[in-house]
Amino acid sequence: MNHVNIWTEKYRPSKFEDVVGQQEIIKRVSSLVQSLNIPHLLFAGPAGTGKSTLALITVKELFGAKWKENYLELNASDERGIEVVRQKVKDFARTKAIENIPFKVIFLDEADALTKEAQQALRRTMENFSNTCRFIMSCNYSSRIIDPIQSRCVIFRFKLLEKKDITQVMKKIAEHERIKITEDAFETLYEASEGDCRRAINLLQATASISPDVNSEMILMISSKARPADVRVVLDYALAGDFVNARDKLLDVMLKESVAGTDIIKSIQKEIWNLQIEPDIKVRLTEKTGETEFRMTEGSDEFVQLQSLLASFVLAGKGKI
User: Fold this and answer.
1) Which residue in 219, 232, 311, 321 could disulfide with 316, CB within 3.0 to 4.6 Å?
2) Tally of helices (H runs) and strands (E runs) in the chain
3) Over 50: is that where the pLDDT of 120 sits?
4) 3-state secondary structure of 145
5) Could you read off the pLDDT of 41-64 as tens digits, one per residue?
6) 34 alpha-carbon distance from chain centroid
7) Long-range contacts of residues 240-248, Cβ cutoff 8 Å, at least 24 apart
8) Backbone φ and ψ of 226, nearest 5°
9) Which domains, ranges and CATH numbers included, belong to the chain?
10) CA-CA distances (angstroms) from residue 12 to 48, 172, 182?
11) Closest to 231 measured CA to CA, from 264, 258, 263, 259
C-alpha cells in the first residue's frame, strides 16, 4: 500500500476530459489552448477543486514534451516577498520560449499569499513581459489579489465538487487499487471532504491502508469526525431539557473519540436542519452556533463555549429562545 498523500499525485488528471466538476471552465480553457494563445489566467476557488491540476494540464497541452523548459512553478506561500518577483519571476519572464509557442508560462500557486508590495511588482512584470510570458495564478480568495492584477487576468471561479464528482473519482481509484467501498462510505467520504477532492483521496488512502474493505465507520474513525448519530443524541437530550446527559454525551464524544471542538460545531450546525423543530428556532440556533464558533476561534475555552451552546438548545426545547 502506498504511503499517505501519494495517491493525490498518482491519480492527478493528465487531460482536460479527466478533470471532474468544472466542465464549464474546462470548456473555456481548452478552447483557449487550442488557439495556441492564452491570456493571463486567475484560478480562484476552494482547495482541492482542480486549480493546480488544470494549470499543469494547460501547460502540457500547449508545449507537449517540452513543457518543463517553458514552465516555472512557484508557491507564493513559501516565496511571498518582492525579491522573488524581481529576481526569479523577472529572469524567467524576459527569456523567449524554446518552442513554437511564442511565450513561456509562470504558475503562481496560492498567489493570495503574496504581499501587496510583491503584487505591485508583479503587476509591472505582467505588463512589461506579456509578449514572452503568460501568468497563471491560483488563489483561494480572489479578493486578496489587487485590482490591477485582476483586471489583467481572465478570472475562472472554481466551485466545490458535488457528491457525484467525488464518487466518480473514488470509484476510479477503488477499481485501480482493488478496494471495496460500501455505498454509505461514498456518502461519508463526501461529507468528510466537504467537496475537497484532495482531502477525499487522502482519507480513502489512509482508510485503505488499514483494510481493503472500506466502510463508513472506518472513514469516520480516520477523519476524526463526530458521528452524526452521536451528535443527534446530544441535541435530542438538550432539546428534551436534559442538560446533564447532553453535556456528558458531548464530552464522551470529544474525549473518547478525540474530536476537536471546531469539528463538533460543524457537525452540530449540519444536524440542526434535521431536527424536528420550528424553522425559526433552527435559524436562531444556527445564529447561536455561529457565535460559539467565532468565540472558539478567538481563543475561548471550547468546553465552556459548547456547554453554553447546549444551554441554548435546552432553552429552545422549552420555548424560551
Assistant:
1) 321
2) 16, 7
3) yes
4) coil
5) 999 999 999 999 999 999 999 988
6) 29
7) 240/317, 241/314, 241/317, 241/318, 243/310, 243/311, 243/314, 246/310, 246/313, 246/314, 247/307, 247/310
8) -70, 135
9) 22-157 (3.40.50.300), 163-223 (1.10.8.60), 228-317 (1.20.272.10)
10) 11, 12, 24
11) 264
